[in-house]
Design a protein that fits this description.
Methyltransf_25; 3-stranded antiparallel sheet; alpha/beta; Rossmann fold; methyltransferase; methyltransferase activity; single chain; globular; SAM-dependent_MTases_sf; Trp-1; 7-stranded mixed sheet
C-alpha cells in the first residue's frame, strides 16, 4: 500500500515537491480535464494527500467532498488547510483497502492510489471499495502508472521523479524511486498491465473504461527547451483511467 511512513515523515516538504516538479502541472490539468464540470456533484477523494484536489473541486462547485488518505500527517495538513480556507471538506485517515462505505457519490477521484497496490488482490480490493461508494450513474477518475512505461526507454528525472530500480513483482513490476528534491525523498510504487486494470474494473462491476494520456498544452512545451518533453511523451510514466457502470 502507500508508503505512509515516507509521507508522514516529509509532511510539508511534500507540498513543496509537488509545487516544483515539472510533471505536476501536467498531472493537474489532465485530472481536472477528466473530471469536467463538477458543479453540484458529490466527490470522494481517495489517496487525497494534503487535500489539493478536494479543495479545487469544492472551489469549482462540488456540493460535497470527502478526502481519505492512509497518512496521518497528510490528513493533518489537509484539515489545517481546509480550516484556513474555511471550507467544509471532511478528511479521514483510512487504508482504502479496508474502507467501508461513506455513501453513494457522483465521482470517486483516485489520484496515485492504484500504483500503491502491492498485488492484484490489493488492486481488486481498491476497485471494489470504489464501486461500493459510487452511484450507478457515477464515474471513477483515476491517475496511475502507465502500463507501457519501461525504464530502459528513459528515466523521468527531468520531470521530477528519478527511478532507481525496476523489477518483476507478483505478475507486475515494482519500482524503487525518489523525488528529485533536496534531500531526495525515496518511495516505492507498482505497475500493473492494461489487461489487469481492465479485468479488475470489470470484476468490480464497471462496464466501460477509457485510458487518457496526459494533457500537454502548447504553453507547457514553449516554457521549456526544445525536446524537453520528448521522453515524457514517448515513454510516459503516468496515465488517466476512467471507469463507469
Amino acid at each position: 500500500m502507500k508508503n505512509e511512513e515516507s509521507y508522514d515523515s516529509i509532511g510539508e516538504s511534500y507540498i513543496q515537491i509537488t509545487e516544483t516538479i515539472p510533471q505536476r502541472k501536467i498531472e493537474v490539468q489532465t485530472i481536472l480535464d477528466m473530471l469536467g464540470d463538477v458543479k453540484g456533484k458529490s466527490i470522494l477523494d481517495l489517496a487525497c494527500g494534503f487535500g489539493y484536489y478536494g479543495r479545487e473541486l469544492r472551489k469549482n462547485g462540488a456540493s460535497k467532498v470527502i478526502g481519505v488518505d492512509i497518512s496521518e500527517k497528510m490528513i493533518e495538513i489537509a484539515r489545517e488547510k481546509s480550516r484556513i480556507n474555511g471550507d467544509d471538506i471532511e478528511f479521514y485517515v483510512i487504508d482504502v483497502r479496508n474502507m467501508g462505505s461513506f455513501g453513494k457519490f457522483d465521482i470517486v477521484n483516485a489520484v496515485w492510489l492504484f500504483n500503491y497496490a502491492t498485488s492484484i488482490a490489493n488492486l481488486e480490493k481498491m476497485f471494489q471499495v470504489i464501486a461500493n461508494n459510487l452511484k450507478l450513474s457515477g464515474k471513477l477518475i483515476s491517475y496511475t502508472i502507465e502500463p507501457d512505461y519501461q525504464l530502459s526507454k528513459g528515466n523521468c528525472t527531468p520531470y521530477g521523479i528519478n527511478i532507481l530500480k525496476e523489477e518483476n513483482w507478483n505478475g507486475g513490476f515494482r519500482y524503487k524511486a525518489e523525488y528529485v528534491s533536496t534531500p531526495p525523498v525515496p518511495f516505492t510504487f507498482y505497475k500493473w498491465s492494461r489487461e489487469q486494470y481492465e479485468l479488475t474494473s470489470k470484476k468490480s462491476g464497471f462496464k466501460s473504461f477509457e485510458w487518457r494520456k496526459p494533457l500537454i498544452l502548447n504553453s507547457d512545451i514553449e516554457k521549456y527547451p526544445e525536446g524537453f518533453w520528448d521522453t515524457y511523451q514517448n515513454n510516459c510514466l503516468q496515465t488517466g483511467f476512467i471507469c463507469q457502470f
